[in-house]
Structures are given as structure tokens and as C-alpha cells.
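Notes taken during the Thursday session

The instructor put the following on the board and asked us to keep it in front of us for the whole hour. The protein is Oxysterols receptor LXR-alpha-like. We were told not to look anything up and to reason only from what is written here. First, the residues (373 in total):
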Amino acid sequence: MLVKQETLSQTASYGTSHNELNDTLLMEPSDIKMYPTEDTPAREGQPVKRKKGPAPKMLGNEVCSVCGDKASGFHYNVLSCEGCKGFFRRSVIKGAQYTCKNSGRCEMDMYMRRKCQQCRLRKCREAGMLEQCVLSEEQIRLKKMKKQEDGTARTSAVSVPSPAPEMPPLAPEQQEMIEKLVAMQKQCNKRSFLDRPKVTPWPLNQDPLNREVRQQRFAHFTELAIMSVQEIVDFAKQLPGFLELTREDQIALLKTSTIEIMLLETSRRYNPAIESITFLKDFSYNKEDFAKAGLQLEFINPIFEFSKGMNDLHLDEAEYALLIAINIFSADRPNVQDHELVERLQQPYVDALHSYIRIKRPNVSMIHLRGQT
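Then, after some discussion, the predicted C-alpha cells were revealed:
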């Protein structure tokens, strides 16, 4: 369940204490971000400067340096959205010349980007987009041909019949670890289920103009979110080694992993037959219910798309539990001090998931995990 910080801060007035979530995470309220918020874009006329090398890891809350829409990555040297990426590429390839009806003085945003192409192209260049990074149609064609040739070569190399090696079973310590993880998760879920009567009931009144009804839906979703966060914290505290970390590292890991774990937990509760997400066994919600609780479609749609995609993988309880443990022990989180210890705590879960998938899904040719291929 995903709610804004402003949502959490208002909950006290609807019957749920905001201190519950604050105490749970051991952090300041201002630090909690339950889904992406916009960062300040680059100043007008100042190109985005970026060091050479791999693009930085996306946090999920970056905005396009050109129009302010949600960024999808670094394109042509600039953090930008898919729309501005495609617009810049088409403009460069065609050598397009645009005209502005406002003498080149348009302020660029998600609305104006469709109205004034000249100012949009100017803003792309000011942000730092480089024309030399745009491949021509011929370069793209040659690149595709090379990729196809490489793929054909790899297929030929692996298509030679050979006896399939028998996969070794899980090591006893891995089997025991996985069983404990699954049991821990079930225990945490059970505690939440027992707290179900404490959740503000979902209102039966469907009047969209009734303020009390809106507040009740708001409180209902927020309390479910708090219970989800409590489950994550309880689970983390039971992971071997977590409590050996400093208090500061525990806070840093929980603060930054919570949103990702909540998405994983949401996806495992997705029911594709009715396109709904079920919490605490009985509470099922579709997109319309999420909207009634105050979330906007720009956040609702990605939640359901992610949930559907994960559901299509047919992961089992063991795989979800291992993914969550790996997610918690991610040493690259901001403000983590003892990276070496966190990585050491994470590695057994990575190894176990890799071994588990090789046995359960022998036809999967490659699994991309930390330190594994």
C-alpha cells in the first residue's frame, strides 16, 4: 500500500496516530517518502553535467530536466523522460526547424512541450542533450544487424545437443534458511491479520461528496500502510545479523527499502482474475478503490502494472521471502556506513535464491543478481 508523507501526517485527525509509523521506522517524519515526489529540475539555461561512465542508479523520483515529467533515465547525456528523448532524436535526425509564436520565450513544462517545439528543442539543448549522441538510421540498422548476428552465434553455440547436467539439491543450510524465512513471513502476516479489527472500516456510503466518507477511506488505506510497514520492520528484525548493525544503518536500510518491499508485497497479493489487490485476506481493492482513497492515477497505474508483471512470473513464497531479505540488505542505500557488513549479510540470500531458481526453473538461462550471472 502506498501513501504520501502528507497522507501519513494527516492520519492522526482520522483516528490513526502518525507516531505509530514514525516509531516503527525509527526516523523523522520528514524523511518518509512512500512514493516518488518531484525533485527540483535544473535551472534554466544550465546544462546538466554528468561524469562519464555508467548512468547513476535511478531512485524513482527523478524528473525530466526538460519538461518536468517523470524521468526514465539518462538520454543523450541528460536525465529526461521518454517523450523528450524521442522528440530530441526525431528533431536531430530530421534536421527540423521550428518556429515559436512567442519569440522563443515559452516556459517549458508538460503542457507547453506539446505547444511549442522550438522552445522544447532549445530547452533540450540547454539541459545538455548532445546531438552527437543521436544515432542515425543507418547506425541503428547496423547496430541491430550486429545484435542479431551475435544472437544467432550464441544460439548456434548453445543449440548443440548435450546431456543436461543434474542440478544439485539445495545445501542443507540453504534449505533451512529458506524455510525459516517463509515461516517468519507467515508469522508477521498472521500478526497483521489479528490486528484487522483495529482498521477503520471501509465506508459503505458511496457518496463522493461526503467529507466524512472520504476521510474514512483515507484513514482505512493509511492504517493498512502502517500495518504493512510494521510487518517489514518485524521481518527485518528477525533476519540474522540485522540487529548487529548500528542503529543508524538499520534506519538507513529500512527507510530506503520500505517502498520497494511494499511493492513486492502488493504484487504477491494481486489477483489477475478481478484485477484487484487483496490485503489481510478479505480487503480487496481495484484501481477505482485506490482513487477513492485519494491516490492519483499516475501512481495507481504503475502499482497495478508492476503487480501484474510480477504475478506473471509465478513466484512462490520462498522466492518472495528471499527477494525481500536481499532488498533489505542492500549496501548501496544512502547513508549506510558499514557497506562491507551489509553486503556480507546479503550474500547468503543471493546465493540461496540463485541456487533455488536454478533448481525450480532449470530452463532459465541467466539470472542477474548481485555478484551472479
